[in-house]
Give the backbone structure.
Amino acid sequence: MNVAKIQSEREYKKAYEKEKTSYQTPVDMLSVILAKKAQALTSNINYKQEFHRYTILPDALSVQQAKMMQELRNDTLYKSDLEWIREMGWIPLGSLDHKKAQRAAEILSENKYRQHPSTVEFTSIPDSPIIIQSKINSQNLNDRLYKAAWNVDKTQIHIMPDTPELLQAKQNAYNTSQARIHSLFPYSTNFTPI
């Protein structure tokens, strides 16, 4: 009896779990329609729509007026009326204005003002402060000169032969030497000092 009760309860819960997640709404429900409209507004699918392309005859009055307005607003067409006047001025050679213009052209000439570095001879002053400082810096940064003093000093420094540490080290070396151990114990091969 208990088994049947448990079985029926499990079937009941199984059906409940299956139906729990399904939700059904009518298609014409107001909230569903509003949600669809809101989604259509927020999506970018229908955001950009091309306008209808009108075909207008080229000799239509509105097209001709638009072209004329565009020409009036165009700067190049506006200034093209004065192009024929440009560079038509005349100055007599040798006059004051002509000499002023020549002098201004010489001053503003890039060819005369700027010279390529290869055309100028380079001379360095040997005792300028910048050169002296760079020599001092290169000597300070030289690794060989930096270590040379230590290499000389490390061969010149001597330890006094009768210092206690040196005597102790010699005695320790003598006590642990293998030759001395073999001379004391000639028949033992596995003896190691403590």
Notes: The mean pLDDT is 80. Residues 160-186 form one domain. The two ends are 85 Å apart (CA to CA). Residues 103 and 109 are 10 Å apart (CA to CA).
